Amino acid sequence: MWESDSDTGSRSASSDGLRRRQGWDPEAESLASQMDELDEVLAEEEDGCPLPSTPEDQHLLDAEMAEVLKAGVLSDEIDLGALAHNAAEQAEEFVRKVWEASWNVCHFRHLPRWLQDNDYLHKGHRPPLPSFSACFASIFRIHTETGNIWTHLLGCVAFIGVAIYFLSRPSIEIQMQEKMIFGVFFIGAIVCLGFSFAYHTLYCHSEMVGKLFSKLDYCGIALLIMGSFVPWLYYSFYCHYRPKIIYLSVVVVLGILSIIVSLWDRFSEPRLRPLRAGVFMGFGLSGIVPAIHYGITEGWFSQVSKASLGWLVLMGLLYILGAMFYALRVPERWFPGKCDIWFQSHQIFHVLVIVAAFVHYHGISELASYRVTVGECSMPPSSIAF
Ligand SMILES: [Zn+2]
User: CA 125 to CA 108: how far, in whole Å?
Assistant: First the structure.
């Protein structure tokens, strides 16, 4: 596992030599790139992966901790008087804390199987961090998840701020009913972004915690889609009671179905990435049916249609674009190992989700203010059918 400096040095030198010879030997080019890869591996193995990635590593860690304890006791570094009470446990806890604080990022191939998700991201992965405090402390370190964590943490805080502002308006400005309808959307957005932040922070804790939070992450997406549909359907079919109830019921059923699929144990497997993108995209695109219905009944180019459908189309395009980045893993697919920390597909997907959610908020705000200016329905809602 640990290569000597001289060994690494000689390999680098041979790689450099091959690079210089590229001009006259075409075969050298591929050999040089292989050498580069080898250099990368060796460089990676030099700083290694200090926390256990595999059961064998766990044994190494245990043995090493026992050594540290023994050395500490023998050299009087550990005060036996102070540690009289549960001495071994306290010292072990101390050593574990030192290990937790001093972890290094890992190469993809050093990760245990349950942490191997995107093989186009080569370096900078967190090792398993089997403590919640270490996972939360990792928010402030640079690794493959830093961008994912912060995009949705900041998005979540932003939506909490908007929700507090909106819900605290005096009721002359925004009525209670409006607040409740928008509240459903805010809950969807805040829960989705919050669960996503929690997932990206904690999934390296252990296989069990990772699985649990990935399920919550997917449930959050389903809740965001459901929460986005509610105010849009409510205001679009404001005076059309029956279609409103039918579409809202369909959205709830589809939402529950996608939550059930999300809770399926194998749904988070890397090879099911396109299925995941497909399930949520299909759920979102089911909005095409009420949108066409709406366009036909209200007229495609009426003022209210523009307010209702214009922003909706933009939001849909942003979500679809985000799902494409997510499923295709672009740009890291084209530049493997070059987007390990920044500009990877998942970060772009996260940013597009936040932008789409804000676009939707703007769209439903316009729709609601239009509804308020038009006034009450001209006929009692119960007498209005399709
Ligand atoms: Zn995510």
Answer: 7
Contact of 327 with 282, CB cutoff 8 Å: no
Residues forming the annotated binding site? Answer: 200, 346, 350
Instruction: Provide the annotated binding site for Zn(2+).
Output: 200, 346, 350
For residue 259, give every residue at least 6 positions away whose Cβ sits within 8 Å of its Cβ, in sequence order, or none: 218, 219, 222, 223
Cα(1) to ligand 1 centroid in Å equals 33
> Which pair of structure tokens corresponds to residue 250?
């369909």
Distance from Cα 281 to the centre of ligand 1, integer Å: 15
CA of 88 to the centre of ligand 1 (A): 40
List, for the chain, all residue ranges whose pLDDT scores fall below the cut of 50: 1-24, 26, 41-47, 381-386
Q: Which residues neighbour 181 within 8 Å (Cβ) at sequence distance 6 or greater? A: 230, 231, 234, 235, 368
CA of 196 to the centre of ligand 1 (A): 5
Ligand 1 centroid to Cα of residue 277, in Å, is 12
pLDDT at 73: 59
Cα(214) to centroid(ligand 1), Å: 9
Distance 380 CA to ligand 1 centre (A): 45
Q: What is the pLDDT of residue 249?
A: 96
Q: Which of 108, 99, 112 is nearest to 55 (CA)?
A: 112
Distance 346 CA to ligand 1 centre (A): 6
Is 1.10.287 the CATH classification of the domain at 127-374?
no
Give residue 3's pLDDT.
36
How much is the pLDDT for 309?
80
Is 265:208 a contact under the CB 8 Å cutoff?
no
